[in-house]
Write a structure and sequence with these properties.
The chain is an alpha/beta fold. The chain has 2 domains: 3-119, 3-Layer(aba) Sandwich (Rossmann fold); 132-227, Winged helix-like DNA-binding domain superfamily/Winged helix DNA-binding domain (Arc Repressor Mutant, subunit A, Orthogonal Bundle). 39% of the residues lie in helices and 21% in strands. The chain has helices at residues 11-23, 34-44, 60-68, 85-94, 106-119, 158-168, 177-184, 194-207, and strands at residues 3-7, 27-31, 48-52, 76-80, 98-101, 132-135, 138-141, 146-149, 152-153, 175-176, 217-220, 224-227. The strands form 3 sheets. The chain has a 5-stranded parallel β-sheet with strand order 2-1-3-4-5, with helices on both faces. Strands 6-7-8-9 form a 4-stranded antiparallel β-sheet, with helices on one face. α2 (34-44) runs parallel beside α3, α6 packs across α8 (194-207) and α7 (177-184) packs across α8 (194-207). The longest helix is centred in the middle third of the chain and has 14 residues, at 106-119. It is elongated, with a radius of gyration of 18 Å. 32% of the residues are buried.
């Protein structure tokens, strides 16, 4: 039975979500503040976290950051009444997997939860062993989700890893932003392809000797990006 952590300071919303997900056969944990959420995430190791963005004290972005500092695999779905692009991009960069707008449509939430559990690297589904990508001095291990350059580990967020892997599976191929967005975030994600640009920028800062003059992740003007690794 999959275990879900629900974090929301609004008790009525949290208990409504808990009821629906329990009816769907999930085990659930509740937290009404950020500190309790971090405690339960570390102790109980849930399979997925539903996290409210706006909470007193530690807000959802800070909880997400702290969870991601030691756990890059567990899917995090953020609930938010704020839909500005900057909030979305910041949340994604900190490691959130998806956003769901308030007021929450419970059927949509259940569908998103199930979709992310199917895709989660902690799941036994779609995780064949021995998957790796090797390009010259770049090694990407899909099972351990590690990246090495010259045998030195590179620390990537969840989405940065997914984006690099998508490019590295077909080096030198030009991908449009929409293609990368669909592969990494999924066609059901409520975002936009400009999110790709933000993550490309952060990847370059970690992979390129001179991020302002990239030689590995190249922009193809008017189209998208390609990875060159020799």
């Amino acid at each position: 039975m999959k275990k879900l952590l629900i974090v929301d300071d609004e008790t009525d919303i949290a208990t409504s979500i808990q009821y629906v997900l329990t009816q769907e056969g999930f085990s659930t944990l509740l937290a009404h503040d950020g500190l309790k959420a971090i405690e339960l995430a570390e102790k109980e190791k849930p399979d997925l976290i539903i996290l409210d963005l706006m909470m007193p004290g530690l807000d959802g972005l800070e909880v997400c950051r702290r969870v991601r500092s030691h756990d890059r695999r567990t899917p995090i779905l953020m609930l938010t009444a704020r839909t500005s692009e900057i909030d979305t991009v910041v949340g994604l960069e900190l490691g959130a997997n998806d956003y769901i707008a308030k007021p929450v449509r419970l059927r949509e939430l259940v569908a998103r939860v199930k979709a992310h559990l199917r895709e989660s690297p902690t799941s036994t589904i779609n995780t064949p062993s021995g998957r790796s990508i090797k390009l010259s001095n770049l090694s990407i291990d899909m099972d351990s989700r590690t990246v090495l350059i010259n045998n030195q580990p590179i620390d990537l967020t969840f989405k940065e890893f997914e984006l690099l892997a998508a490019l590295a599976r077909q080096p030198n191929r030009v991908f449009t932003r929409d293609q990368l967005f669909a592969q990494v975030w999924g066609s059901d994600f409520l975002g936009e392809s400009r999110t790709v640009d933000v993550h490309i920028r952060y990847l370059r800062e970690k992979l390129e000797e001179n991020p302002s003059q990239p030689k590995r992740i190249l922009t193809v003007r008017g189209v998208g990006y390609r990875l060159v690794w020799e």
